[in-house]
Each structure stands twice: as C-alpha cells, then as structure tokens.
Write a structure and sequence with these properties.
This is RING-CH-type domain-containing protein. By secondary structure, the chain is an all-alpha fold. The chain has 12 helices and 2 strands; from the N terminus they run αααααααααααβαβ. Strands 1-2 form a two-stranded antiparallel ribbon.
C-alpha cells in the first residue's frame, strides 16, 4: 500500500517537473524568471497551443498547452469579466481525451493519465467561474423600490438589479439609488455634527455602504451597475475640499469597486488619484497644521480643527 502511494507521489512530481519544463520557455521571462501577464501571457499561451495542437489531444504536450491556454484566458479576461469560450474549449478537450480511440495514445500519456484528468477537472473549475451569470427575466410587476415607477426614468435609465434580491424586489434606477445614497450620507453627517462618536473606519463604512450595497438583501452590487454607481459617488463630492470625509471615502470606494469588477485600468487610475489626494492633504497639514478629525482621528466633530 505504501509503495503504491509513493509511486503515485513520484508520478505527480515527475508530471509537474515535465509540465514546468514545457511551460517555462513559453510563459516565463528568461531574464527575471517571472511569469508573463496580461495580453502577453494570452498571446504566448495561444502560440504555445498552436505549436503543439498538431500532435493531437492524446499527446501530453498538447494537454499541457491547452491547460496553459485556458488558464491564461481565464486569468486575463480584463474588462470582459465573463466568457464562455474557456469552458467550451475544456469540455471539448475532455471529450477528446476520454474518447475510446486508444490506437494513437502515446506511452507517456498513459503514464500520466490520472494527472491529466486532474488538470482537466481543475481547468473546468476555473472556466466555470468565468461563465456569465444566469439572468432571469424581469417580472412584469417589477418596479423601482424608490420611485415605484416601472418605466425608464427621465434620463432613459431602465430598471436594474445586480444584487441577491429575488422575485420583483431589488429593482431600481441608478439615479434613484444615487439620490437615496446621497441623502443617507447627508443624514449621517448631520448625526456626526451633533456629537455622535464613531471611528474613522466605521464612518467610512457608513458613508460607502449606501453606494455599494443593496439595503434590502445587504449584498454588494455587481458588474457595470456597481462601478457606475461608484463613479456617481465620486462625482457627487468631487468639488468638496480635500480633507472632507465624503470625498476621501468616495475615491477609496471608487478604486475598490473598479478593482473588484475587473476594471483594472480605471481602478489603478482611481488609486493614483487617491494617493495624490492623500499627498495633498499631508502637504496642507505640514503647512497650516490643519486636520480633518473625521478621517484622521476617531472624533465626532468633522470640522477642521487646529492642532
């Protein structure tokens, strides 16, 4: 029994070594040893597959090339967060591997068949994660839970729902949600001005949640709706002073939502903006000694104070 386990482990090590030896020239930089990423990784993975696909699906080199290609495409979807292609490809490849044609099966393929099947299962899991979410048709009784209208609003924005609500609940216009969130922020700031004590983290959460989370199901908004709402949040307080808590939280929320929804370029831009904002604030602190107590200290008064 122990010998069988040892043989299986040694086969696993041998397979991983062979896989690494085959992948490295295609997917790793020869100078720094780091993996390529982004469009470069996708392009090289495609070339890797094209080079070996002529050998057929029952050749181990073709298998490894397919696995590399699918992973590269799943990890670098970019703005198109969802894709059916990787899943379709791995399904088709699985059928080829499981076919009954044993005539052209190479000895090395038979040797590592279990490891290849495990890799297929792993690739299918990754590809399933990239499948577009199933959408259900909007029920006829659905209406905006804020304005109670079931038609597009005055700006032409239709009803949307990207949270976890079910049935006819949770539908809303993005402008209605923006107005609702802004009112929530105003109410919260008024409470803070009356002397309510709250930490900076708690204050930030109270301000960002109305813009990022459905108040009905308490789940985060997703997809395009989420980052459009975050952009509106940022624009709402863009003209406010640098040391105003709502402006700081809006930029922080914007960068986080961009990254969570795979809008990486815009997310990095928002992060740079946030860093510049912090630098500006610190420069002002050094020059005039002012501090925004709601952001930098755990205090209830949000007025700018002297040290």
């Amino acid at each position: 029994m122990a010998t069988a386990v040892e043989d299986e482990k040694s086969l696993e090590i041998e397979y991983k070594s062979f896989k690494l030896m085959l992948e490295e020239p295609w997917l790793k930089c020869g100078r720094c040893g780091e993996n390529y990423c982004g469009s470069t990784e996708k392009l090289l993975a495609d070339e890797f597959f094209e080079y070996y696909k002529i050998r057929g699906g029952r050749d181990i080199r073709t298998c490894i090339a397919v696995f590399a290609q699918i992973k590269a495409h799943c990890w670098n979807l970019g703005k198109n967060r969802w894709s059916k292609q990787p899943y379709k490809k791995i399904q088709l490849f699985k059928q080829v591997v499981e076919s009954n044609n044993q005539a052209n099966e190479a000895e090395v393929f038979t040797r590592f068949k279990i490891q290849i099947e495990n890799d297929i299962a792993a690739c299918m899991s990754i590809a399933e994660f990239c499948l577009p979410p199933k959408t259900t048709p909007k029920p006829p009784e659905a209406a905006c839970w804020i304005c109670l209208d079931d038609e597009p609003d005055e700006h032409g924005e239709s009803l949307e729902r990207t949270c976890a609500c079910r049935g006819s609940s949770g539908y809303c216009h993005i402008n209605c949600i923006a107005n609702f969130a802004a009112q929530k922020n105003t109410t919260f700031m008024q409470r803070m001005m009356t002397g309510m004590s709250m930490s900076a983290d708690e204050s930030s959460k109270e301000l960002s949640v109305p813009w990022t989370q459905c108040p009905t199901c308490n789940q985060d908004y997703t997809g395009t709706f989420a980052w459009r709402l975050a952009v509106t949040f940022s624009f709402q307080y863009y003209s406010y002073p640098y040391n105003e808590l709502r402006r700081q939280v809006s930029i922080e929320t914007l960068s986080r939502v961009f990254l969570e929804t795979s809008q990486y370029d815009m997310g990095i831009g928002a992060l740079k903006k946030e860093i510049n904002l912090i630098r500006t604030m610190r420069k002002e602190l050094r020059t005039d000694g002012k501090i925004a107590s709601g952001f930098w200290m755990d205090a209830g008064d949000l007025n700018t104070q002297k040290n």
